[in-house]
Amino acid sequence: MPTELMETNKVEAVQNGTEQTRTNKVFIPRTDIYESKDHLLLMADMPGVRQDAVDITLEHNILTIYGRVETPKVEEYGLTYAEYGIGDYRRVFTLSNEIDRDGIQASVKNGVLKLVLPKSKNALPRKITVQTA
Amino acid sequence: MLLQRIADTDLFSSLRDMQRLQQQLSRLMSVEKWPSTQEFPPINVWTSENGAIARTEIPGIDPNDIEISLVNDSLTIKGSRNPEIPQEELTCHRQERGHGQFTRSLQLPFRVEGDEVQAHFSNGVLEITLPRAKADQPRKIGVISE
Question: Could you give the ipTM of this predicted complex?
Fold first, then answer.
């Protein structure tokens, strides 16, 4: 069976010294990052996260994505077999480019966060023509 | 060198560090309770007398591309996740999300009422409700005294 799917176990986020106020687990979402001439594209797997449960903060050049998962309650049933843990998602990236904050677009579809981060006009590469004297 | 570092820092904070390490270690040790698997997608199963609920995390897939089949007591989930590589000229910095086809089968400890199986997909999580076949449900047997 041809499959390119990689390890599925979620990696738990370890935060140095700091602890959560809630006792739930926090995982690092698997993320793809692409860059084009004028924007950065980030896609993160966050199964169980609704569109309105995602927090994105950009402070200086530190981008933090946080997705809250509502713990699904299963009444009258007991968990008998588990291969994945349930918890929130958090990941922090340091961005090297200057980002146009007002143009950031975020959407969640089928548990995947898609983030478009347009580069700021000042940071766009400029072509400088050499003038001959 | 390690001794020196411990001596340098305040005693209580290193105690806290040790407690945290211990917690992480015991979580690692208790991993057997959570059978880890490299298979995709990972499945969690809840059971009761009346049936089972299976949940699986398949983010980024169209619900119409998921194929669920049931033969006697075994459930099979099939599908594929297509790479969403955008058309434009993009340089890839990081690629951690996998793609491709997957098939997973799950054998249940009871027969399933095939007509009443329900599947819901929301936010990348597929939930399949599998009611136990009526003929297979535990029955209470009254004792008749003569």
Answer: 0.79
